[in-house]
Every structure is written in structure tokens, then in C-alpha cells.
Amino acid sequence: MGLRRAMLLLLMSALLHVVAADAASTTQRIAVIVANDGSWQGIRGKLTVRQLARVYRRQYLLGRDGQRLHPVNLPPEHPLRIAVSRKLYGRDPVAMARFWSEQYFNGISPPHVVDSQEAMLRFIANTPGAIGYIVECKVDKRVRVVLRLKLRVTGSADYCAE
Amino acid sequence: MSILFDPGWRWWHCLLCCHVLLVAFSGPALAEGDTGGYRLGSGYALGDSGVRLGGYASSKYKKLDPAPAKFEVSDLSLFVIWDGGGRWQGFSELEIGEAVFWEKDRGWSTDETEFELERTYLDYLYSPELKIRLGKFLTPIGHWNQVHADPLTWTVSRPLTTDAGFAHHLTGMMLHGEWLFDDHELEYQLYVDDSTHLDPKPDNPSPAGRDLPGVEIGTFEHAVGGRLLLKSVDSDWQLGSSLVNFGIEGYEGRKTLLGLDFLWRRGGHEWSGEAIYRFDTGEHEHPEWGVFLQGIVPLHARWSLVLRQERYTEVAFDQPIDLSNVGLAWRPIAPLVFKLERRWGAENELFAPDGWFASAAVLF
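Above: the input entities. Below: the C-alpha cells describing the complete assembly.
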């Protein structure tokens, strides 16, 4: 009887964990953005999640017509960055540290990091070849959306008001 | 200082001058907000110049039978990475080896200090499938040699399979690139080497190798080779094959080396292995081969258990060398690693004697 009760408690505890984790995350529409001034020349082929991952891993350094690509990230602890990292690489930003250490040893630096979504907007708008991401509700006329993602993001913050 | 006036160094001077000029006349790499400043493990970005300075350092303790205990600041490598935002990229690594050491019977000394221009090359990016590299670079045989820096490896000692059978550096030209498929990526590297003419300060074999010429190689003489690497999109696994044909100064004929390697990583676990097979048409008719398997098991709080088993055959010995390594590695943060290791084996007294190792290494 004691064992059954313990099993039941464990099961309920696990269920509560799942429910709590789910409640602490929201689905967000993420827009992958480039400058809206006509400077973005695009990559060769269609921009897909997989191609975007290669841009962020610095495998695709050049876009169409030889334009240099500049992927931009939010800080590693930012929930949007974590969600995008999971989508692109299948792991959290911290789990990519070893990959980037090996890349650094061979002269390749990780993507540029900006502090906030507003900084992302300013950077993208002013840097030819730059590509980044923000929540879709933050998109304005300075940037153009080239890909849309629907991702689970941890936390319940209002990213549109950030 | 006299080395700076050595005629052989003029080639390097030209390359370095080109490098500096390219840096000086390159425009800003990014329009605003570049990561100026310093980050551990990523170096120091000089504003928007596209230049990044960094490197790595390691200190080691060794107690190898029957030698006395030795502590050394074994590597101090300085990187200059240049990325001007166009089709050209540059990379230089200057290494100060054995900068300072302490030995039980000799005390502190700087007698074994060595300055090495480990790598200096320029890359021209034509497309992801075609990049052209000119200069001195790491020999693309196996995985280990291309990421051999102490902060990136799991053991203080290096497997003989990745060390003794081929030159660690090439000087010449390499075509490299990658084809990207839906689920896999295929990387290639094709190179021609003329280190004997282009590298003014070629690598020397270790003291043990010098005593047995032809056993351990310092520098290739006219090498031609390539490497193919198939890997998963998420880099969880990779499978590589290498082939190189080369000569060695003072030996007739040429040698051919075939290599195979694999790497698998997931959730802190890592399994890797490399194998080489080397044969020649010169006076050393016996083929050489080596193989190792290494496993990393995550323990607790960023500690990992390291296990490695290796067998290596040398042309000069009848019996193969067997080596076993057990160690611990602690990575509190990604660029920093502390290691402790015990190695033992059979027929290994000359090249890889039994002993204890410890090290601290950091990418900065």
C-alpha cells in the first residue's frame, strides 16, 4: 500500500512539473529580419530553417553576389535566443560553447551579440548583410521579414513590450 | 633576435606585411555595435577593424618514468584573426613553447623556450564549396591534429596515432569547402605542400624521433593529399578519411598514409577514434599503423572521466606499443579545463613512457 501511495505521489509530482513547465512557456511568432533598404541580397537558394542554421554556424559566410552575411544574436540567456538556438541547433546556447571554442581555434568567431530587440532592430537596419530575429510584433519599417518561426519560449514576459 | 635576420624568414615577413596592409586598408567590418572589447574564449575585438586578438595558454606537470618531475608553462599561443567582412580572411598563430619550466634536479629554467609561427594563412572565400588557403596551416589528417590545443582536448598527452606518423603542419596551398545536403554535410580539403622550401623554420621531430631517423616526421617534403569528412547537420557525429603522399628529407622513395577517424557526441558523452596506416617504397619497407579509441563519460558538476586505449607500431620496433590512459577533466566554463591523467603501457619506454600528467589550460 505504501509503495502504491509513493508511486502515485511521484506520478502526480511529475505531472505537476510538466504542467508548471508548460504554463511557464508561451508560443511566440518570431520574425527573421534583414534591412529594409534594399541592401540585403539574400542567400543562394531559399532561406529555410536549415539554411538559417548554417548562416548562424558561420558555414555560409557569403550571400548571393558575394555579400558578407552577419548573423546577429541576442544574449545567451535571453529566452528568444534559447528558443531560436533549440530550433536551429537542437540545443541551448551554452551547449554550443565547445563548438564555438573549436571554431575560434580555427579563426571563426560566433555571431555578433546585441543586448535587446531594439538594439537588434538598429543593428540590422544599419548593417548590410546582417540577419537577426525578434518577435513579430516588434517588426517595423526599418526591417523586412524573410522567414517566420513559431516557437515555444520559456517565461511569460511580454516580448512585444520589451 | 638573429632569427629575424635569417634570409629564410623573408617569406614570412612578406606574408605578415601583406597581412598588416590588408588590415590597415580594410574598411569597417560592421556598420555599428561590433563586439569591441574582450570575452574569455573569444579574444579581444579591436573595435570595427575586423581584427581579433586571442590565443590560449597551458601549464603542465609531468612525472614520467624514469625522468624527474617537471612543471612547465608549455604553451602560450597568440592568435591574430582578421576578417574584413569581404572575401578575404587571415589567421596567424605565434606560439611560445616551453616558455618556463621547473625540473626537480635543475630548478627553474627558460633554456627550452621555442618561438614557432604555428600557422599563418590567408583564405579566399569564393563560395561555401570553394575556399582557397595560402600559407602555413595544420595538416588535415584526423580530427585531433586540427583541434590539438590543450583547452580543446581531454587529455594532457597526445595519442601517438595523431603525433608520430605525419607532419603536424603544411606550407602551401589548400582548396577546401563543403557541400550541404538536407541531413548531412560533406567537407573536403585538398592540398599541396612544399614546406621544405616555403617554411623557413620547419618542425623538428621530438628528441626520441631524432635518435631514430624516419620514425617520427618533423616536416613533409612535397606532400600531396586530401581529406573528406561526412558529418551530421547538428555536428553530433562525423566520419573522416585522409590520404597523403609525401617524402622525407634524406630518404629515398615516398610514403603514403591512409587515415580514418570518427567522432560522436551527445549529452556530454563523447566517443572518438583515429587510425592511420603508413607504407613506403624506400628503405623502410615495414608499414606503420596506429589506432586509438577514446571515451568521455560525464560525471558530476562538469567533471568527466576520460578513457583511452591505443596501439601503435613503429618501423624501428618489432613489438607494437600499447598505451592505456585514464584521466579526469574538469571544465568549470567552456574555455577553461583542468586535467589529471595516468598513462601506462607496454613497449612504450622511448616514445610514451608510463607516468602522471596534470594541466590547466585556457582559451583567452
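Note for the figure: Chain A has one domain: 26-154.
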